[in-house]
Amino acid sequence: MSVAFVPERLRGKAEVNQETLQRLLEENDQLIRAIVEYQSKGRATECVQYQHILHRNLIYLATIADTAPPNGQRTAD
């Protein structure tokens, strides 16, 4: 299951840290490799599920980036 997938009942409670982000980036790397492999074998329909997971992961990363304070700025304690 994708690192970015969080059940509805747990949303908003998941901690986002460097380890989680790194695991997500590594998962995306694996997904891209699988998609490329399937496409190179002419099996594009099989890669659709991986494309959906990759898309969800990218949206999750974009959401985190949008809510994070700009570099060099601290949030109020």
From TrEMBL:
Residues 14-41 form a coiled coil. Pfam families: SSXT. InterPro entries: SS18_N (IPR007726). Keywords: Coiled coil. It comes from the Eukaryota. Belongs to the SS18 family. This is SS18-like protein 2. It comes from Alligator mississippiensis.
